[in-house]
Design goal:
- The structure holds two protein chains of two kinds.
- Chain A is an alpha/beta fold.
- Chain A has a single domain, classed as 3-Layer(aba) Sandwich (Rossmann fold), CATH 3.40.50.300.
- Chain A has ten helices and eleven strands.
- A six-stranded mixed beta sheet of chain A has the order 7-8-9-4-10-11, with helices on both faces. In chain A, strands 1, 2, 3, 5 and 6 form a five-stranded mixed beta sheet that branches.
- The two termini of chain A are 35 Å apart.
- By secondary structure, chain B is mostly helical.
- Chain B has a single domain, classed as Methane Monooxygenase Hydroxylase, Chain G, domain 1.
- Helices cover 88% and strands 0% of the residues of chain B.
- The longest helix of chain B has 37 residues.
- The chains are: A alpha/beta, B mainly alpha.
- The interface between A and B is medium-sized, with 13 and 14 residues.
């Protein structure tokens, strides 16, 4: 059940692509995200960090209404994107997820060819252009083209974990999203594959806005322009990443970053 | 591993403070050697510098090791950066103290220069400044660090006065000229020590606030 906020907030600043306003998300009676107001800037990577259960994945999934699939999950407040609250009736969640794509923790390619994995979403969305060119472009942007260009018909499940994750990113890019949500995209990958995804995020920022959930604080420090720290569902602190990692202002942020939590 | 890291960080901080105490002691001995004309004490200062040099390298190695293995952030990162920076200042202070001790050996027979009232005052003020900087570092005392930073101009003024007075009076004969130059070198090295103490105070301000205040009036 979605209840839009009665208060209409100020218009989005130019560089803000998406923002939450007093967003609260409940699973039944449990408040997983509490009154979070947070802005995500265009062509920047924003990392959401915090201990397990702090609500960062729930918040991420709220940004393209993936929580709609979760039983008993209710959101109040606003998530503003493209001039409207995405939780308003009349907002098409399928179209929304095309514009705000998602990459999950564990690579989840379709059990189909590499080519079909990339082309599939675009084709069922009525893509009428040059599919070969689209597949190549997306695989190039995902940094995978050189590795797979000679085996596009091969089953995607035969790729390594890191390659599968880049394929999932290419698949998301094929829908020409504006925002990419990434939920711990490297947690199932080895250090080399992780490094490639991090380099990729750095490149993707020039075209897309990236919002990333990560347990790895060094990863947030390496790839994110801004970092938000959540604790027990509350947004404790958000700042430019270098400030966050050298001069955190809130004692809870300081305690978490230095591992002195609890 | 957090507890282990915190313990290592505490150990390193204590080690840095022990180095601070050693350097403070060396400066005090260098000043005593100068003002009392004690050549043996001057030699002792010069010998003790080797220990400071060795310790500087060991502290630096440990900072690099902790940075590489633990990738600290926040106050832990600031503490390690501060330890690394003040470590360098301590080593340079010891070098300056050695320079003072070297000149003290030359000035044993020139009490007019080595125990000049303004040189004596400079010794006193610089020793106090270093002591206060080390205390501010140990206690992470922001107000004390800021006061040291403000007080640096007093030492600069005193140093300028010494140069003016010494050069105005001039020296009679080549022997006295050499002594006067030694005394001016002493003053220069003491003034440099005060600058390093001010650097330490500025690093303490960074440690506590995260703000880099160097080169700001």
């Amino acid at each position: 059940m979605i209840r839009p906020s009665p208060v209409s907030p100020a218009p989005l600043a130019q560089d803000v692509v998406i923002r939450t306003v007093s967003l609260t998300i409940r699973y039944g009676d449990f408040e997983a995200v509490k009154n979070v107001s947070l802005e995500f800037h265009r062509h920047q990577a924003t990392a959401l960090i915090g201990p397990s259960g702090c609500g960062k994945s729930t918040l991420l999934r709220a940004l393209n209404r993936m929580n709609d699939f979760t039983l008993n999950c209710r959101a109040t407040g606003r998530v503003e994107y493209a001039g409207r609250n995405i939780y308003d009736t009349g907002c098409d969640p399928v179209e929304l997820r095309r514009r705000i794509g998602m990459v999950f923790q564990k690579p989840n390619p379709f059990p189909k060819s590499i080519y079909r994995n990339v082309a599939w979403g675009a084709m069922i969305n009525g893509f009428r252009g040059d599919t070969d060119a689209l597949v190549e472009q997306c695989l190039r942007r995902a940094g995978l083209w050189d590795e797979v260009k000679d085996k596009l018909k091969q089953n995607a499940l035969q790729l390594s974990g890191g390659q599968q994750q880049r394929l999932c990113i290419a698949r998301a890019l094929a829908l020409e999203p504006e925002v990419l949500l990434m939920d711990e995209p490297c947690s199932a990958l080895d250090p080399i594959a992780t490094s490639r995804i991090e380099d990729l995020i750095d490149q993707l920022k020039s075209r897309y806005t990236v919002i990333l959930v990560t347990h790895n604080m060094q990863q947030a420090a390496r790839v994110a322009d801004r970092t938000a720290f959540l604790y027990l569902g509350e947004l404790i602190e958000v700042d430019e990443t270098p400030n966050m990692f050298t001069q955190p202002t809130h004692p809870k942020t300081q305690a978490y970053l230095t591992g002195r939590f609890g | 591993m957090t507890v282990h890291f915190v313990n290592l960080l505490d150990d390193l901080r204590r080690r840095s403070l022990r180095m601070a105490a050693l350097v403070e002691d060396i400066l005090n001995e260098a000043c005593d050697a100068l003002l009392l004309g004690d050549e043996n004490l001057a030699r002792r200062v010069i010998l003790r510098d080797e220990g400071v040099d060795a310790e500087e390298v060991e502290v630096e190695k440990e900072v690099i090791r902790l940075l590489a293995l633990y990738q600290p952030v926040g106050t832990d990162l600031r503490l390690l950066c501060t330890i690394l920076k003040v470590n360098n200042d301590f080593e340079r202070i010891a070098d300056c103290a050695v320079n003072v001790a070297e000149r003290a050996k030359h000035l044993v027979d020139h009490p007019v220069y080595r125990a000049d009232v303004e040189i004596r005052e400079l010794c006193n003020v610089v020793q106090q400044t270093l002591r206060r900087a080390i205390q501010a570092y140990g206690a992470e005392d922001l107000e004390a660090a800021q006061a040291i930073r403000r007080g640096d101009t007093v030492i600069d003024d005193l140093y300028a006065r010494i140069i003016k007075d010494f050069t105005a009076e001039g020296a009679t004969g080549p022997d006295n000229t050499a002594a006067m130059l030694d005394a001016l070198s002493v003053a220069k090295n003491l003034e440099r020590i005060a600058d390093h103490a001010t650097n330490i105070a500025e690093d303490v301000i960074y440690l506590i606030t995260g703000q880099i205040v160097r080169h700001q009036s």
